[in-house]
Every structure is written in structure tokens, then in C-alpha cells.
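This protein record is not my work; I was only asked to verify it. Where you disagree with what is written, explain briefly why. This is what I was given:
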Amino acid sequence: MGIRVRLPVAAIIVAAIAGGAAIAAPAQAEDEADRLAALTPAAVATIKRIESSPVFAKAMAAIDSGHDKWVADIITLTEIPAPPFKETARAKAYRDIFIAQGLTDVEIDTVGNVTGLRKGGGDGLIVVSAHLDTVFPEGTPVKVRREGDKLFAPGVGDDSTGLATQLAFINAMNAAGIRTKADILFVGTVGEEGRGDLRGVRHLFTKGKYQGRTKAFFSIDGGGMDSLTIGGAGSKRYRVTFKGPGGHSFGAFGLVNPMTAMSQAVVDLYKVTVPTDPKTTYSASVVGGGTSVNAIPGEVWMEFDMRSATAEELAKVEQRFLAILNDAAATENVARSTRDGRITVQPVLVGDRPAGSTPLSADIVQFSTAAYAAEGIKLRYSSSSTDSNIPISLGIPAITISRVATGGRNHSLEEWIGIEKANNVKLKRIGLATILATAGM
């Protein structure tokens, strides 16, 4: 999962909803987006009806009593390695759990996603997902270490906890015998991280057997008690190769050097000013090339990442980046000898995640906001790069909901989550109520 960024519509004023009244947006709303943050009476009433029902109480009792099972599932799933493009072992284990939980049409699809259907009334399809893959390469130790109310391990949060939270939702619905108007497709996706480029969810929506049927989409990813991800931060990722004639570091001194051109491109990129709102970023990330310390390299390469909460700003930084690459090559070809060949540059797009946002007026956002308000939580909206990017880009209402109350150091060897009971049960209450409202309980 990508880093969350706060959107301009960041906060909602939480008010009492006991009487089912609408919750007002900030009095000094600066734009239409802020005004649309006002909750509708229908959304508030729907959440209140669901949360006051006996079957929901039974479902929450199952979540409460199943807290230790949730922790155990996190540990079990974390300790099944799922490095990039090698999620098979975890996928097979997750498939078996889906079968044991009574989902139908359980399968691993052609790209590796695990899918299982919970039949409802057939009134459309709601998708609930978490991702199987981690960012860590094959061979990374994934043994979980517990210290009090914290679990430590690479990938323990992102997204093993999302998978375990999804299982807790399924178990709670089964325990309460909950029926929904819509069918719910539960998914463990592949390729959410890094060079996976959302290949799992992309396949689900563009080539899989469920394409064209989804009414709304949930990704269980990220952490925290007060943030709802409604925006998909887009990204463009390039692997750029600079080539030149190469030669002996002493004998061929004075020839053009692709390393110099690449270095100049990095320096010039980091002079580019980008907006903070919408948050827009860039990074020179991975580098390689050359043959020997005493040789001018014939080829060097680097990977770059650019992100923005809007497609417009992402396009601007991408265009500037591509111009910088060409300028850097041209500058080196003027600065040094090209008698044995010129510097060339080849940028190859290796990642393309669309940017966008689910409207604040969408039912899925309204229901989630009402569920947070029912808990007295002042909610902030955010944008991130998650599986939700794909459905958002297709015009399908999608949000990313929190998997855990506390956590930190994501994508590091010291990644951790908090497993204290009270807040994590509360978070699941919010998530389950939102899913059931969207699916039509």
C-alpha cells in the first residue's frame, strides 16, 4: 500500500446522531467538496438500523469473542511468505480458509487472485478485498515476534492483517446468519505492491469472470482509527536506461558517459517544484549498471516513481520528467566526445496506476462516514495508492478501509501492528456496518 495523503476535504464535524439528523459539514466550507461532506439522513438512519439490529449484535459478539482467532490468523498468514509475484503458497492457504468458511465458487484465478462468493439476494455484486502480496523479496525472515500488545514482522500489517480482518467479517456474518440483498465477493488479490502494478485487481475488473458486475468495492488496507481513504493516488513508474559507447576509464577518457547523463537527470528532477495540494511526489529509487571500476559504463539504468492525488498533476510531473531525460542526454552529448557513439536514453513505463476519487456523495462514503460518526470519531479523508485505484478509475464507488487500529514502520523489517482488543473491535464494527449497509442488509 502507498502512503496516505490528506485531501482538501479532510475533516467532518461529528455530531450526535441519536435522532437520525444529518451531520453538518464545516460552516465555512471552502468548496463544493466540503459541502458534499454533509451526511444524509438516509445514511445515518441506515447505519443506526443495522447497528441496533439483533443480528448485528450477534455478529459483533462473534468479532469480540473471535479476537484471539483474529490475532492467530494474522500470525499464520504473515508466516506464509508472499514475495512479489510469488504469492502462490499464501493463496493456496487462503483458498482453503475460504472453503472452510463456507464461501461458494472458491477458486484461484488465472493471475493468482483468491475469490469466494457469499451469496445474497442477487441484487448486484459488492467486492471486499485485501491483498496477498508483500513488498519483501524471497528469503526475507517472516517469523512473527510478539511483545505485549504488538506483533512485529515484515508484512505483518501490510496486508496480512487486512486478510485476517476480512476473515473476521466473513465469520461474523456467518455466525449471525446475516443475509444481504447483494452478493458479496471476497477476494485476496495479488500484485498490489511495487512492480505488481495492481495486476490482480486490474484482472478482476477487466478480464475476470466477475467483470462488469460490481456495484461497490472495499479494499481492507492501511491502518488507524480516524482515516478513510476515498482517493486513489495515481503513479507513473519508469525504468530508464542510458546507453553510450563505453570504454577504458583511462584510455577512453573524454568520451560521453551514460552515468553522467543519468546523474544530471536525477539532479534536474530534484529541482522540480511540485504542489503540496494535491500532494505530488517523485523519487529516484533503484539504480544499476556498469561492468568494472576501471571502465566507462556502456549502460546504466535507474527506476523512478512519480505520484499525485490527481491525474492532472501526475501528467505534469511525468511530462517534465521525460523532458529532463532528453535534456540530460543531449547535454552530455555536447559536453564530451561522441566519436565512438552518442548517449541515448530509453524510458520504459513499468507501472501505471490511475488517479481519482470516489465522490463524498456516494453511498459507500456516506455509510462509512455515518458509521464513524456513530462511534464519535472525527473522520478525515485521505488518498493513497491501493487496489481501490482501479475501480475508482472505472467509475465504480470504492474506498479503502482500515485493517487495524495502530501500526507502523510499514515496508520495513520492523513493521508492527497493535493488537489491543477494544479499538480493533470498534474498527471492525465500523467496517462491518459499512459493508452491510452497502450490500443491503
Summary: The chain has twelve helices and 20 strands. The CA atoms of residues 244 and 393 lie 40 Å apart. Residues 3-36 have pLDDT under 50 and may be disordered. The longest strand covers residues 234-243.
